[in-house]
């Protein structure tokens, strides 16, 4: 009988009420399983009183062994936790409308292996982007949405999520509002890109609003979707400088760059289990 | 008889309804006065239909001659205009409360000749910053403000503006709200620094609001003061990246840097006649 | 007989030794042709003593009329000048190797009408990116380059430039060095993207060099190609923050974003005639 | 007998060859001393094979107890380490010449308690900044440096470092080159601000060099001083956008802002024990 020498890189994320001994207990548990910590980050939020940890560890232990080891710890410290293998592409469903820039960007990044996602399908309420999905060999699902067919459309969407086994849904400029129920059922698993520097310019036409107000910098915000529109926990924001010469169309064009890179970062961090929820705020272990 | 060889660098700024022939007329008028244009910027706003121009010109002509030449042009094109000598420090009154960073910064920049202003006095509703004013040899005026004494305080302020011949008033984290009348009477001549990326987080405690919302970037906004609080025309904005580890106190500290450099830029551009009003927006000829 | 009412938007760019009367003369010439100036920028470089101007003008005059009017002016002031219609897509040839990000980006921007270029072909020294060219309906030319076949490859390249009528050649991560003669013959018409913040990290492997040096910010530089490698006039640069956790591969990935947006800006500004050469520096009328 | 309830916030930093068990051993040692970890960061450098850790811990243990506990661990893992109390202002000596901006900035930040340093003196090779030191109640030492008096000047400097008990020396635009011996003797304890984005534009006149090259972004670099000029480990860099209109004087003015904020960050991180040396690179636990 020879020892198993094959090791796996694991990512363990957890949050719990803050208190002494958590890091020691986790590090001890991992040491008992021959784990070598390659990356570790902790954060204690003085406002919420919660503790957050993300640890990347190389170990020969099996998933079952690790789960068995974490479970009593989780009970002891009242932890919410997750265990995944590092680098595993996250099954992701992309929802789009007519604007192509975020879709093109995410699919290109997946193909060039710069984003650990496995796009399992593209859903469009219009057919405009079907050819892009085809170029990247992705199934395209046309799910039109009108006022009257909204419930049916959402039902179709739910079926697609279930059918594809999607773990993450990305609203890549989807422009449709999901129902409260849908948001609740997939809390922390739907990421949106809003084309403004939230909380400025919520709602429709943010670039027009930004132009009207005469701001000198525009931005984009990627956040988890909640029932409260444009109020979900922010994952990432970025900005670009503009000036009086820019028309609304210029802002739209400039904003596309900001949107796609903001969204790509948020998706990357989520897929790498770097984003933890802290109430309506996020802890991002970059 | 010898020709006058002494020349002056002039800055002419103007705005008027857009239409053909304006640049040609202005350039022609300047050429007639032996003017050599060293810097010139124009902008036609397709939204407001207004035309804006800033021209820096070297000429041996006297102020009287130039004014006489501009006056009929201004009448013909319905211009709002201003003529000043380039590099002349603008007489500026600084209003402060307890926070020192903007005051220290502006006074340092004036002394190091990096900001074309002549600070004619510092007004504080508290005495905390009196020693800084003294170090830079600036008269300090203590004008306390309470609910009951607000009208008297504003009267004192008006007297100081008149008495010092101040052309510009800078609210360097003054923390007091000026009356509508005061704002109207000095429209386009009072600059404020707001410690948020407007229109996000208007009103009090913007860093607390920013922390609560969990934004990933904070900012500052320098704008002209109007009766409509935090709604005046924006001159300049800047931002800084933050993350979940930053407390509200951290945001305050990080924000100080953003505030002082945003305010310094706005004051510089105003003092160099680079900022023109376009309704509730600004044209900034940087 | 009726007046011609059809107007064209023209872009006139020029540079010449600085001196009085240039703006007036140009504005006068344009006024005589019923031109309405919609955008105009000037710059006098105190170091080189040269004057630069870009003016966008709406006029019913024909190209012939305008050329006839500019010609004597150009002679009088010793001008280098160019006249083009605004918004005309510039015929552009893209040279690539194996890295897809710049190609994907430029083709996407052309298709979404966010970049005023007409890509007349894609040349690759490898076949890797042929499918991307095909997706965007662009002819792909495989021109392999080895030490021995370099002259033939360059001859093929010259033929392609002539055959397609390309006005601009973009090295979209082409990774091959052009001959001095080629650079000279197309001076100011070949744009390269270098994957470092020049003049830091010239030559090969800039991200490895950047990692070795432990810099905290990486960048990209878009410049005109000259015989002097990585020394051509810089059009645009941009940067991204990095830290000690980033591997060389991370820098490559992060850098791709910086490269593509830096290159896209440089190409846009060139195609809109916003870039003028001032010796080995550039004037960019953004 | 009552238990000691007074606790201290400690910062423990360490680096050692990477391997399994380090985090567990450190966390265990701290747990044994009733330590509650409030902040912890680790990094394993795949290039150098070294492991780095910074842990902030609240504990009632005495310094002696902690030192006794760390010592055997350090021996076991071959650690370089340091233990300090959190928030203790670091004794700092500022070296200046004629440029005031960095001095004014650092002293202001100390006074406003935004920088955990205790400036124990200001040394100038000129007397220009004596009044600023006086305003902040800091002893000013005039140590002129000429070619002939260099050794004497350095001897005086060494005496001041010893006499004041300075732990950190900051070259706040000092403009003098220290001897190799001086650099070696204070390795990792002298911080310089170089007014370029290193490794671009080493040596004298970096802004003139930047202007000549026509770069579109300028920067500043704060680094530890080594005998190899402008080659020391980089702690922080920052940049600012510039364009063709900026003269060399403009670059100097714009650069001052970048310099002072880059230097202030580097000093803060060093004073908070966030900077660890990894060969000629730095690990910065921000």
From TrEMBL, chains A, B, C, D:
The segment(s) forming the ACT domain are 11-88
Q: Which UniProt keywords apply?
A: Hydrolase, One-carbon metabolism, Purine biosynthesis
Question: Which Enzyme Commission number(s) are listed?
Answer: 3.5.1.10
Superkingdom to which the source organism belongs = Bacteria
Name the coiled-coil region(s): none
Which CDD domains does its entry note? ACT_F4HF-DF, FMT_core_Formyl-FH4-Hydrolase_C
Q: In which pathway does it act?
A: Purine metabolism; IMP biosynthesis via de novo pathway; formate from 10-formyl-5,6,7,8-tetrahydrofolate: step 1/1
GO MF, one term, reads: formyltetrahydrofolate deformylase activity
What's a Pfam family in this record?
ACT
Active site positions, chain numbering: 230
Q: Does the keyword Lipid metabolism apply?
A: no
Keyword Transferase among record annotations = no
Q: Which reaction does it catalyse?
A: (6R)-10-formyltetrahydrofolate + H2O = (6S)-5,6,7,8-tetrahydrofolate + formate + H(+)
Q: PANTHER family attached here?
A: FORMYLTETRAHYDROFOLATE DEFORMYLASE, FORMYLTETRAHYDROFOLATE DEFORMYLASE 2, MITOCHONDRIAL
Note the NCBIfam families from the entry.
PRK06027.1 (NF004684), PurU (TIGR00655)
* Function as written in the Swiss-Prot or TrEMBL entry: Catalyzes the hydrolysis of 10-formyltetrahydrofolate (formyl-FH4) to formate and tetrahydrofolate (FH4).
Protein family: Belongs to the PurU family.
Q: What is this protein called?
A: Formyltetrahydrofolate deformylase
- Species per Swiss-Prot/TrEMBL record: Myceligenerans indicum
